Automatic annotation (TrEMBL):
<dbReference type="InterPro" id="IPR047772">
    <property type="entry name" value="ActR_PrrA_rreg"/>
</dbReference>
<keyword id="KW-0804">Transcription</keyword>
<feature type="modified residue" description="4-aspartylphosphate">
    <location>
        <position position="54"/>
    </location>
</feature>
<keyword id="KW-0805">Transcription regulation</keyword>
<dbReference type="InterPro" id="IPR001789">
    <property type="entry name" value="Sig_transdc_resp-reg_receiver"/>
</dbReference>
<dbReference type="Pfam" id="PF00072">
    <property type="entry name" value="Response_reg"/>
</dbReference>
<dbReference type="InterPro" id="IPR050595">
    <property type="entry name" value="Bact_response_regulator"/>
</dbReference>
<feature type="domain" description="Response regulatory">
    <location>
        <begin position="5"/>
        <end position="119"/>
    </location>
</feature>
<keyword id="KW-0597">Phosphoprotein</keyword>
<protein>
    <submittedName>
        <fullName>Two-component system, response regulator RegA</fullName>
    </submittedName>
</protein>
<dbReference type="InterPro" id="IPR011006">
    <property type="entry name" value="CheY-like_superfamily"/>
</dbReference>
């Protein structure tokens, strides 16, 4: 991995900087971007060999960055980090060219393992998989976001009472 170029795209500046320092200690030459537009400019200038991209950015979707990178440099290896993980976006990220999809906050060693894994090797199953309650909560959050955070529309699509949905949304995410 020594001397490999790495683009880190995240709008959470403190997390971005900590991750950049951690990856530099592991031999990467890091470049950071705060959003889709910034990442597009850096990819156009010099497409990196590796990328770590946050799914939700202030100015767009991290999947757009994955797609741009794949068009500019097909052999690049990118992973998606997100605090809003769900199966549909993970599948979409892989279809667009991401090699892995990790939940935030991801450990730098897990990120390094994902970036350096050979394409034919399968990822290890998670030590602590999501509980059924967490999967349900993630699904509700995804539909809520797709409905532009409209509680009534989300409740209708999920076939549940609006007040029940409001109670679920008011609670913290299950572990």
């Amino acid at each position: 991995m020594d001397g490999q170029s790495l683009l880190i795209v995240d709008d959470d500046k403190p997390f971005q900087q900590r991750l950049a320092r951690a990856m530099e200690k592991r031999g990467f030459e890091t470049v950071t971007a705060d959003g889709v537009q910034d990442a597009a400019a850096k990819i156009t200038q010099t497409a990196p060999a590796f990328a770590i991209v946050d799914m939700r950015l202030e100015d767009g979707n991290g999947l757009d960055v994955i797609e741009m990178l794949r068009r500019k440099r097909p052999d690049s290896r990118a992973i998606v980090l997100t605090g809003y993980g769900n199966i549909a976006t993970a599948v979409n990220a892989v279809k667009l060219g991401a090699i892995d999809y990790l939940a935030k906050p991801a450990d730098p060693d897990d990120i390094l393992a994902a970036l350096s894994r050979k394409p034919e090797d399968k990822a290890e199953p998670p030590e602590n998989p999501m509980s059924a309650d967490r999967v349900r909560w993630e699904h509700i959050q995804r539909v809520y976001e797709l409905c532009d955070r409209n509680v009534s529309e989300t409740a209708r699509r999920l076939n549940m009472h609006r007040r029940t949905l409001q109670r679920i949304l008011a609670k913290r995410a299950p572990r």
